[in-house]
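Morning run. Coffee first, then this:
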Amino acid sequence: MKVATIVGARPQFIKMAPVSKELRKKFKEIIIHTGQHYDYEMNEIFFKELNIPKPDYNLGVGSGTHGYQTGEMLKKIEKVLIQERPDIVLVYGDTNSTLAGALAAVKLHIPVAHVEAGLRSFDRRMPEEINRVLTDHASDILFAPTETAVRNLENEGIKRGVYLVGDVMVDALLQNIEVAEMESKILEKLEIKKKEYLLVTVHRAENTDNREKLKSIVEALIESNEKIVFPAHLRTVKALKKFNLYSLLESSNNIKLINPVGYIDILILEKYARKILTDSGGVQKEAYILKVPCITLRETTEWVETVQDGWNILVGSDKEKIKKAIKTFEPSEKTHKQRFGDGKSAKRIVQVLQGREHGGEK
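And here it is:
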């Protein structure tokens, strides 16, 4: 069986790493990289650190509006799929690459398998939410990471082809955390000590495209007087400069503004942070797995379990809520559960695909 894996952004590279490793034991895999993330810090370093095979195709779409990106990807992916004729197309998560890959495949009557199916924030203002919903409804096989995700799909009438496999990011984290401990020198490089800093990541359009929200977050970070490490995405840096906020961070005494880092370094920064502030879904989940308190700079989250268990608090961009959470949010060890799987999700995914290949139930 030939499997076409479609990826394009940093979180997808992490998710595909353990799955690709298992896939290649049984099937032929071709990797189609849309080029949604294309600079070294967000792209090549992840392939290198995670030992992901070099993409068979790099479509080089790059940045742009949602419509432009998705349209260009759709055209270019379709061309590759017509040429390669895979038996199944595998897509990950909730990016424009995910939706474009699913649409291109389903229009060509190629079965679609969606890894990380069933997530819902119930906020249709988020482009990621639209991508998730549409991809799930176009998919033949839906690999759900949690019981909540399975229930979400059932509530939308999707019951066939749904498999509870756990979360592949747990696989990736467990496979790489020991390597990270041995190889990463990021704490020494930044001259910071374990549990004596906060880690911040901000990249969602809802925050970076809104001056007032971004200003409120920046002011909260500065006014907290906490030692903060802030790896800033290129789009975040552009927004900070556009809104005249970059100089505020640079001149602050408590914030280290750095370039994005690779997977090995971010795992160490996450593990040894006292708390994490983020608008990233993946970072929320990694924080939970690593038992680090998470303050989410959004009003909603697709990882509701982290909030239900008391290890994640939603504060949006409200300055006072952010400052209060930094000071007072302290989860209880008693409420932490093994929510996202046992690190064997990739094996389960391949088992399902094998069953399909051998005429098992769809």
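The chain is about 50% helix and 15% strand. Good start to the day.
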